[in-house]
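Page 37, continued from 36.
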C-alpha cells in the first residue's frame, strides 16, 4: 500500500527537493505552498504523514499543527516539523503541540526520508501484538490506536501512543531515555533526551491523575511505569 505524504512548504526549492526524494521512495506526495491550503488538503485527503514548515504565509506551522491535533479526523496524523536554525523555542513548542519530530534547515533530504520512514513505522503495529492492552481502567486499542480511560478518550499523538505502549509493556522496569528513543523514535542522537522529557510531560498532561502518576521519573536515568 502506498503511503501518502503531504508537504506544506512555501519555499519552492525545498518543496521540490523533498517531493522528489519522497517520490523516489514510492510515496504518493501532495503539496501545499501556504498554511491554509495545507490545512484544507490535510482535512480533505487525510494523508498518512505531514511534513510541515514552521514559517508559512497566512497560517504558520504551529497554528496548523494545533488545528490538526484538535480535529478528530486529523489528530492522529503524524507531523514532522521543518524549522530554520535558531528557532529553538519554537521547536520545543512545536513538539509540545504534538509534532512527532522536527528537522532543522538546512537538512539532508535523505535524512528526512529516513525520519519519514521511522515515523510511519511507529504508526504500524505488528500483527502478532495484542489487540488491546489494559492497565486498571486504561485501555490501549492497538487497531485503532486509541486510548481510553474508562469512557473518556485520551487524544494521543502517534509518538505519545508508542511511548505509553513501551512504558506499559515494560511495567515495573526502568526504561532509559536512550532505550525509549531507540524503541519509540527508532533512532537516537545527541540532544534528544529532552525530546523524551517533553513527550513524557505531554503524555502525563493528557492522561492526568492516577495514570500520570503511574509514569514515574527515575532521576538521571529515565522513566518507569508503575506495577499494578
Ligand atoms: Ca517557510
Amino acid at each position: 500500500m502506498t503511503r501518502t505524504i503531504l508537504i506544506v512548504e512555501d519555499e519552492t526549492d525545498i518543496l521540490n527537493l523533498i517531493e522528489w526524494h519522497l517520490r523516489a521512495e514510492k510515496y504518493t506526495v501532495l503539496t501545499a505552498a501556504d498554511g491554509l491550503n495545507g490545512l484544507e488538503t490535510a482535512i480533505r485527503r487525510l494523508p498518512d504523514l505531514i511534513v510541515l514548515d514552521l514559517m508559512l504565509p497566512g497560517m504558520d506551522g504551529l497554528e496548523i499543527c494545533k488545528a490538526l491535533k484538535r480535529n478528530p479526523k486529523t489528530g492522529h496524523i503524524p507531523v514532522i516539523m521543518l524549522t530554520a536554525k535558531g528557532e529553538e523555542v519554537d521547536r520545543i513548542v512545536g513538539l509540545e503541540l504534538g509534532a512527532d519530530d522536527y528537522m532543522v534547515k538546512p537538512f539532508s533530504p535523505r535524512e528526512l526520508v529516513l525520519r519519514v520512514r521511522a515515523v510511519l513505522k511507529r504508526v504500524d503495529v505488528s500483527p502478532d501484538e495484542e489487540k488491546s492492552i489494559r492497565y486498571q481502567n486504561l485501555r490501549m486499542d492497538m487497531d485503532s490506536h486509541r486510548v481510553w480511560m474508562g469512557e473518556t478518550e485520551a487524544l494521543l499523538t502517534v509518538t505519545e501512543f508508542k511511548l505509553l505502549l513501551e512504558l506499559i509493556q515494560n511495567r515495573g522496569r526502568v526504561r532509559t531515555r536512550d532505550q525509549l528513543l531507540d524503541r519509540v523514535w527508532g533512532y537516537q542522537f545527541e540532544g534528544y533526551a529532552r525530546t523524551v522529557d517533553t513527550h513524557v510531560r505531554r503524555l502525563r498532561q493528557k492522561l492526568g491523575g492516577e495514570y500520570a502518576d503511574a509514569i514515574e521519573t527515575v532521576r538521571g536515568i529515565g522513566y518507569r511505569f508503575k506495577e499494578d
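The CA atoms of residues 34 and 191 lie 30 Å apart. Flag for discussion at group meeting. The mean pLDDT is 87.
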